Amino acid sequence: MALILGVALGYYLNVKSFNAYNETIYAAELKVKEIDGQLLKVKDSSSVQFKNLQLEKEQVITSSQATEKTREKALEPLTLLSDIFLRLIKMIVGPLVFTTLVVGVAKVGDISAVGRIGGKTMLWFISASFLSLLLGMIMVNIFKPGEAMNLPLPPSNIDTGVKGVALSMKDFISHIVPKSFVESMATNEILQIVVFSLFFGVATAAIGEKGQIVISFFDSVAHVILKITGYVMNFAPFAVFGAMAAIVAKQGLGVLSTYAIFVGEFYSSMLLLWVLLIFIGYIILKKRVFNLMSRMKEPVLLAFSTASSEAAYPKTMLQLERFGCKDKIVSFVLPLGYSFNLDGSMLYMTFASLFIAQSYGINLSFEQQITMLLILMLTSKGIAGVPRASLVVIAGTIATFNIPEAGIALLIGIDPLLDMGRSATNVIGNSLATAVVSKWEGELTEAND
Questions:
Q1: Average confidence (pLDDT) over 425-444
Q2: Residues 340/129, Cβ–Cβ less than 8 Å
Q3: Short-list 343, 345, 344, 351, CA closest to 372
Q4: pLDDT tens across 57-82, in order?
Q5: Cα gap 249→408, rounded to integer Å
Q6: What angle do CA 312, 140, 391 make, to 5 degrees?
């Protein structure tokens, strides 16, 4: 209901007021392109005409930026609702991951058992990531949206606001290993929290009887945080309402008509990924996979509406335990999934990267595309938690293949719409991973509601 009401209000606001802002911004973009064309015709860059055109361009850009700020200011009452909810979620995710994972690992016992579960978990993650990347590559080659849409290409010198990152083993390692646990908790670096929790949990189990006091304490703390989670989730409908109203009011339905082909083909590919993942889940979990998907409806809808899989983390954890997954498996696999098993983001990276290449008429060979897939497989693992992480990874990867980074501008406008699908798919992928590892470990019991 909150989702529907949010879309309805967003559409009303877009038609009544925000469309005027959008038309002003669009007119400014056209004017800048026109001036750029005139500047190319002026051969003497020191001439009065050239300087006047440059001045006019700066004035148009300044006016456009002022309009954008006014639009964002007008959206604040709506975005405030989702911002509050997401901040509350971030407030509890770090402590929840730490306490539940410490208890889970300590209950698992010796380090060999932790290694065994970790090995099975990473086997699923790597396989699912490769499947997602490969499917994105196959589907974008079948649909060829970059060729079919005939979008006007952005200027090569445009500032997209997204800085690419190069593949660096040092950055990857430093992202995994925390230099300060307190800093990791403060910045919500989930992967670093997981690493410290693994050490803490194994050490707690190793000291034997004395460790039982620690386990009991953290188990109690985890239950307190889960109770807080229940209070926070009561605010979820307001967050969904605000998030949907803001995105529709800002983007309008017009952006969908312009990018209808790309959005439709991307979501078709995403749906196919769902089918493949659920089918693989069916092979392992049998008919219980359908019960799992039924339980995931609320977390998936929450992730989709807020464009944040992190927002669905507490609810996903709760539903998995009710499904029959042991808490020690859930608290181990699920946090790792948020860094290593972002299936929706994986599919998007190959799909979007090759879409940009197609838009510029750059034909990449099969070998080049496989190389790009492998690079994305590596770079994506060290970037979780970075704002607009998918676009950052794409920007860094396409530069390796001499594809203009300015092509990112083709995606920025619709990225929030695509992020909703990515976030929902990440929840599906991580819930299946947890259930499958539980089954492999013989720790999947009957559902308890």
A1: 94
A2: yes
A3: 351
A4: 889 988 888 988 888 888 888 888 88
A5: 23
A6: 50
